[in-house]
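Cross-check.
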Amino acid sequence: MSNPHTSRTPSRLTIAAIALEVFLAIGALGGGLALMLGPRGETLPLPVALLSGAPFDSYFVPGLTLFGLLGVGPLVVAVLAWRGQRWAPLLTTGVGGTLLTWLVVQIAMVGYSNEPPFQPIYLALGAVISAVGIASLRRAGLASRTGHPATG
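Predicted model, tokenized:
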């Protein structure tokens, strides 16, 4: 049985979600891989001392998490969105929320830095992905403006 959503042209919101998720995934796959390959700061110039407030003694576990959760995950959601899957808007919202949560935890553990400005850029990206996901949910009729699932 074919999916009725796959035969139509993706909306601008869907294209925006896909582009944002692919952009996030590229950065997270590269950053995660670099952290795993150089868990003591050999690949990226990150001193292990930054992890003093974190439950890790190297960057391997954060790199693996970054690679999987914010690298592979958004790529899967982008593919689902491209294929017109009904739950892609909800998953897009989840990607944005996951990125925001990642950054809040990161800032709590290692502190805030805007040199280089990765944290503010990715905070903004997380907010935009979340907003696109919410707008897509509303457009698809999966959520109402009050935050409750649409009935109908």
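The first helix runs from residue 12 to 37. The mean pLDDT is 89. Passed to J.P. for a second look.
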